[in-house]
Design a protein that fits this description.
The structure is a homodimer of 221-residue chains. Chain A has 221 residues and is mainly α. Chain A has 9 helices and 3 strands, in the order αβααββαααααα. In chain A, strands 1-3-2 form a 3-stranded antiparallel β-sheet. In chain A, helix 1 packs across helix 3 and helix 4 packs antiparallel against helix 7. The longest helix of chain A is centred in the last third of the chain and has 24 residues. Chain A is globular and about 55 Å long. Chain A starts with 10 loop residues before the first helix and ends with a helix.
Chain lengths: 221, 221
Amino acid sequence: MTETVLVAGSKSEQAYHAVKARIVEGTYSPGYRLVLAAIAKDLRVSVVPVREAIRRLEAEGLVKFERNVGATVAGIDPTEYLYTMQTLSIVEGAATAMSAPLIDSLAIARARAVNEEMRECLQHFDPVRFTRLNQDFHSVLFEHCPNPHILDLVHRGWNRLASLRSSTFRFVPGRAHESVDEHEALLQLIESAAEADIIEKAARLHRSATLDAYLSQAKNL
Amino acid sequence: MTETVLVAGSKSEQAYHAVKARIVEGTYSPGYRLVLAAIAKDLRVSVVPVREAIRRLEAEGLVKFERNVGATVAGIDPTEYLYTMQTLSIVEGAATAMSAPLIDSLAIARARAVNEEMRECLQHFDPVRFTRLNQDFHSVLFEHCPNPHILDLVHRGWNRLASLRSSTFRFVPGRAHESVDEHEALLQLIESAAEADIIEKAARLHRSATLDAYLSQAKNL
DNA sequence: TGCATAGTCATCGTATACGATTTCGTACTT
DNA sequence: AAGTACGAAATCGTATACGATGACTATGCA
């Protein structure tokens, strides 16, 4: 398995994807200090493309940047988490609703299969695996969204959440069960070609509920 | 009046704001070819900070970038316009709804005053002025949104629309009158502390209606 | 002993230089 | 006359180099 991506195009691209990957997979955990020279040496490029990469990641909110000081991996303080989830609930809800009429029965079946895997996963609960399946499931639902801007916003939201090291469900394991049920309900709405409004609201609430669970959990700490 | 901004901080910042300003105010119109060296010479800096600025603008969608070819001011082909308006309808609707409970009566009065100006403006219709007032009006409504991510998305949407040279209402003057009425309706909803759902839907429809008007207009060309 | 200040080190910010790629124009061939 | 191929100019991409800024440490004074 080659470490460096082959199709990388420009060095800036390479650097961008490399750093992003390390953030998402947790090699660079929140608060990690991103030193340009060090990354450049590591990737065998000069600092210039690395700078560009960092700035792009900053624009996506994965990295916090301070002039003349440096870049750090954006922490997920609880406030940020709230903002991100709230934003995602809105854009993902919209994306799912817009996507729904375009989802064929094959894709529905695929999503349902993933959801069944999630249900099985409830037995020997593994939050990390569960979270990845969760993303897979939702991807099927919103990926057909015809508006690329909205789709992009959804992706950005998921990316930011991914930089939470492991998983939302580590904090709120109780949500996992409900989550699976709500997924099935969502699928049935889509199959029955429900109104866009209805689907949007369901998708939005599904996410808000996870956020609420997290918040009431956090309050007890 | 000094041409260069004083608080500009880094050269990258300077370049970013300078180029952005020129795009928004129309000095660089859509399709304009942004040549790094030329801009750098013009701003008395080297190309490196200009590159960074361009990349940031690319991330915001104001600039289209092609490897080894160059950057151009993002055109507003009708499709892009549609996507942007659709996205804006969603995030602005949400922002307005979240903002609504925090708007005090003073701000309401201010918004109403702006709307009255718009109504007067209907007599000797000036699309550019009308559009600016329109932005002022909506700013009052969504600016209190407590979620900075969502607010940022709204601003980005408006910025992209601003790079339309003059005005939406140049194309759909018929919408102007209805628009003013819908504004008043929105204000009354907010004053009466209507449910967030209701406000969100109203704000969203208000924008979609403009989009629909544009689309049916465009179909006739 | 504690705080202030100066000096050094790490790191970022920008300029300049050169190599790589694309595009456009011109000349040649069919 | 039209199309293709070659070459030159324009522009981008990256590396290296140096200046600027902020952080840390050590030393001296209160």
